[in-house]
């Protein structure tokens, strides 16, 4: 009997031991490789955006320093000036010194673009989700990928509330039995009769009970998902790995830097000394010519891309009525999709958007540009700034002799040559090159 009671107690305690429910990833899972399911349920697209221009950092002044730093600066400047007016002028100037750069080459073949990859879940069942995806972008052989940074994706953080689970088990046992042995003596007059009585049974009364309670609580929350980027064989791969309750849909944004392999070199010109500090028009011999080499992309085709992706798709067979995924019976499909069509990401016009300008003449039907000649050769006079072209055109109107078709400048190191359609300098115009 005691052994039986012990077995009952152990059984009750074993039944009362709880296990987690809300913290499970699923109730059961079956992994299946099926490229068709991935293609039917997941769509990936891509396009480029122009990167936002960075704001210039304003120079620091004395007011950006701490009181102790301001005191030290005033003390040092006071040692180098003779009067208060010079001191005030120095204190009001910027502390940041702009480095002097003599730029001779401007490389326009290094391009920074912002790429957006759009991931869509085509399933109509709310419980089905994309749990993992790796997108590969092949931009072809016309460019070379250099780097990828500032990767970001955006998900709202949603608190869905708390889920509680509790499990209580209780058992009890009650028994009752008795045993008695005795004798009975009966007398009637002179006669005496003896009799014996007995009853058999087990004398036991008791109660056995066991109780155990298991509870757990989970905060359901959506949060931001980490990304990873790699460049291999001139291909860009962006990888996302989700967590419980996260469907990897939406936009993935990344800044990439690439180089256009084919390029042309074009000299552009700037001129100093057109107007002196007294606002007097400079003489041709005093004009200083600076030549800058623009390395421009030579693009004949649009930049196209082939998109492929590997993904895991979580299809819920049962248990989709609850937000918690712990009771889900799922089929986890995985596969690869390769799009054969090339999508146009960047039109060639967008890659050759550097504005260049030339000086020509309104009465010239062919609109040939003004040329410039030096000991190294002769070519078109090209500007990379409309303001520079305008300022030089104003100077020419003042200093050019219409009876000639050339003008020597910069101590005769350079010569301006008018086109064949030149009539008068007053007809000069500025046109895109």
Automatic annotation (TrEMBL):
<protein>
    <submittedName>
        <fullName>Uncharacterized protein</fullName>
    </submittedName>
</protein>
<feature type="region of interest" description="Disordered">
    <location>
        <begin position="174"/>
        <end position="204"/>
    </location>
</feature>
């Amino acid at each position: 009997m005691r052994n039986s009671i012990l077995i009952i107690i152990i059984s009750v305690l074993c039944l009362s031991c709880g296990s987690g429910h809300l913290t499970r990833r699923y109730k059961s899972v079956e992994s299946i490789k099926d490229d068709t399911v991935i293609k039917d349920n997941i769509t990936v697209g891509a396009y480029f955006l122009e990167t936002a221009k960075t704001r210039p950092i304003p120079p620091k002044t004395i007011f950006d320093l701490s009181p102790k730093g301001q005191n030290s600066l005033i003390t040092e400047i006071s040692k180098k000036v003779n009067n208060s007016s010079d001191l005030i002028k120095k204190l009001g100037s910027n502390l940041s010194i702009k480095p002097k750069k003599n730029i001779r080459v401007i490389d326009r073949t290094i391009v920074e673009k912002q790429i957006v990859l759009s991931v869509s879940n085509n399933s109509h069942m709310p419980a089905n989700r994309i749990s993992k995806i790796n997108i590969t972008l092949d931009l072809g052989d016309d460019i070379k990928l250099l780097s990828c940074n500032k990767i970001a994706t955006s998900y709202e953080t949603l608190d869905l509330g708390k889920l509680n689970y509790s499990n209580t088990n209780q058992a009890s046992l009650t028994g009752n039995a008795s045993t008695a042995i005795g004798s009975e003596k009966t007398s009637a007059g002179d006669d005496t009769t003896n009799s014996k009585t007995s009853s058999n049974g087990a004398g036991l009364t008791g109660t056995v009970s066991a109780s155990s309670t298991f509870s757990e609580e989970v905060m359901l929350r959506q949060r931001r998902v980490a990304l990873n980027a790699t460049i291999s064989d001139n291909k860009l791969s962006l990888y996302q790995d989700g967590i419980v309750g996260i469907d990897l849909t939406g936009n993935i944004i990344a800044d990439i830097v690439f180089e256009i392999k084919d390029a042309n070199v074009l000299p552009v010109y700037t001129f100093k000394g057109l107007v002196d500090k007294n606002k007097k028009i400079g003489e041709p011999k005093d004009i200083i010519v600076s030549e800058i080499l623009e390395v421009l992309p030579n693009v004949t085709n649009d930049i196209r891309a082939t998109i492929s992706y590997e993904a895991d798709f979580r299809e819920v067979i049962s248990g989709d009525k609850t937000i918690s995924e712990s009771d889900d019976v799922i089929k986890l499909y995985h596969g690869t999709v390769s799009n054969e069509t090339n999508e146009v990401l960047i039109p060639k016009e967008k890659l050759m958007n550097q504005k260049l300008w030339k000086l020509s003449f309104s009465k010239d039907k062919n609109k040939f540009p003004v040329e410039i000649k030096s000991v190294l050769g002769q070519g078109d006079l090209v500007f990379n700034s409309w303001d520079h072209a305008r300022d030089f055109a104003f100077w020419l109107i003042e200093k050019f002799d219409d009876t000639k078709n050339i003008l020597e400048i910069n101590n005769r190191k350079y010569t301006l040559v008018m086109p064949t359609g030149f009539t008068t300098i007053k007809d000069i115009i500025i046109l895109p090159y």
